[in-house]
Write a structure and sequence with these properties.
Chain lengths: 485, 327
Amino acid sequence: MPKFVLLWTDAAVWLLTAGLVAYVWHVRRRPNLRANWRKVFCDAPALASSVVLVACLAVTLADSIHYRPLLPAAAGTAGSGDAYDTRTRSVLDGALAGLVDARETTYSVPLGAVSFTKETLEVAGRQERVAPRLLHGGAHLTDPDSQRRGDVAWRAAAGALCGFAGAALLSALLVGALARKPGQSWRQALAGAWEGQGEIPWRVAMTTIVVLGVLVGAVAALAMRYHVFGTDVTGNDVLYQTLKSVRTAFVIGALATLATLPLAVVLGIAAGYLKGWADEAIQYLYTVMSSIPNILLIAALVLMVQVFLDKHPEMFETGLERSDLKLFMLCAVLGLTGWAGLCRLLRAETLKLRELDYVQAAQAFGVGPTRIMARHIFPNVAHLMLIVTVLEFSSLILYEAVLSYVGVGVDPSMNSFGGMINLARNEMNRNPVVWWPFASAFVFMLGLVLAANLFADGVRDAFDPRARVFRPRVLRTARSRGARP
Amino acid sequence: MLNFIVRRSLYGVLVLIGVNLATFFLFFTVNTPDDMARLNIGGKRVTTELIQRWKAERGYDKPLYWNDAEQGSEKLTETIFWERSVSLFQFRFGRADSESAGDIGTEVARRMWVSLQLALPIFVLQIFASVSFALLLVTFRNTRLDLAGVVLCVVMLSISALFYIIVGQYLFARVLRLVPASGFTEGLDLVRFLVLPVLLSAIARLGTEARLYRAMFLEEIGKDYVRTARAKGLAETAVLSRHVLRNALIPIVTSAGGYLPYVFLGSLVFESFFGIPGLGAYAIEAISKQDFAIVRTMVFVGSVLYIASYILIDIVYTWVDPRVRLA
């Protein structure tokens, strides 16, 4: 039995997931919320991106269960208690153990079988500059030059086929279960969903799942024998790093936005409802806050966090715990500095709401101000909170990269997109150019941020009654199925 | 108008006092002058005398907020907080914390012009490019071109600015060898160094802004006065450029103006990537050297610029929209 380690961000991620589940349950019981969320999923891009986001969430969750494996009892230490590995690993590390262990000495190109840098070796009695074979990538090939292409194609095809089958089955089960109406057979439900009956474009969801499945299958099949995205300067697999970076990005996007909520909601509603000196004070507070250049304020706070961590080494046992605590604090810092925008928005909305009849009625009944704010005003500004939260998610992921570049982002020992881009800056100046860590960071980051943005657009259109939707609608004469109301 | 400017400026001073208080508290409470001295002297040479000398040289050898040793009002004025605050408001920034760096004030004054040379073209080109692109999409609204343009915008705004910089540098400076990758000079030759960062900065924000402006234009286009203009028989281009653009300018000024304060420090990353010795690069250097005196100064300068540009935006409002009265 390994020893489980609960890191700060792990706890936060799991709490967040629990909150998400509770929210889904809450939504199911409220008809109006349900209708709004239904509208979100009727939007094809939002539905497809929610599939991508769920996949990223799965990676994050797998990387959020940390444990220290039990070491095999060494001779002579029997009876002195269990010994655990000093390195903390996550379930994701465990699943990708093959990639972690398949370490090369330095750079290698994606799907390569030989090293990127040449070495002087003795070949048939002469000194020659050759690129040595990799320790793991393509090590099963006897003659890489002739076999590699065929082997890669064969493996990719096989993996893609398996992925296709698995994903097709999964999507059929999922969609069948979700789209089935009472009294309908699975077959009818699936056929209906595929043909586009009902409001939700299930076909888009199924296609997304299948495409994801094919990609994952092909990459997984290749990753068993190759470094699909190459290796970095110390020979670590880039695919593994990008997957770990997904978690960092996800944690920053989710936790930092959530951290802004308490301050923004409480102060915003209080300022708008109480007016008078409280309003003046809160306005002054967020004016001060937003007039400090954001990046400098964050830099200052993160430097402070660094000093704090250096002074309190007793708060963490391992390097991982330290970098994790730093990530957690970074999220707190981002939350502490980022609440001004939402606060301003909520204040303006509350100013409008407090003059409405139902609030006046509540006041006339003698309901206290705290209760009015919590029970009457908060539920009516909650949609703004939701919209801003999902919109902020993607911008924080982008922001993390800039912060890491400035040197105030996550710990350098932690994998993150910002760190990868930072390294890529020098790698792109090498000759021949080392492009693959940069390219894979780009692809994964674009995928994640694009999905988050599309999802956010869907949420905004569905929840904000005043959102002016100016989606381009190509006017087609025949087959105008894609037109939305 | 004058009344408005005076009142806003006074509130700005009040905000600056708050900023000053916040930064001072932030920097000096967690990181005492003794810690700073140790950090900057570094190594094994740290002795009590050295620390005292370092603090005396920079005026850190006093209590933080309250000096019990002095008499009367000097209890308040003979402290680090008072001295630092007063000199900040007089724009005397004092000496940097690290050994080698010189006077912060002269550095800021010199680098400000460098930053401006980069920031102004960026600002102008950004607005021009985004507005033109948005107008193009609006002209061809509800066609395939519009759809493709909006998809392009969404993809572009999902890409980090750092990617644009790295790819742009690689493509234009290394592969095509059109411009130098980074650096800075005086005089006309400067254009060669500035053209790439300016161009990339405009591209980096094109997606976000063009999409926003497109929505603003489309909102105006649905209004009655546009229909009237069309009914008069005006050509579509005339309607767009003379009527719609003029009216959509108000929200555009808000959104572009909101970006103005970041133009100075917001090109932080661009300055440091392209080796342009402006304020942003100065701030990044200070952060990596952990020179708190410079970071403190940059926070103050940034806030001053922010407040000033917000007053400026309000004045521009009255010029763009005659209905707005500043009161």
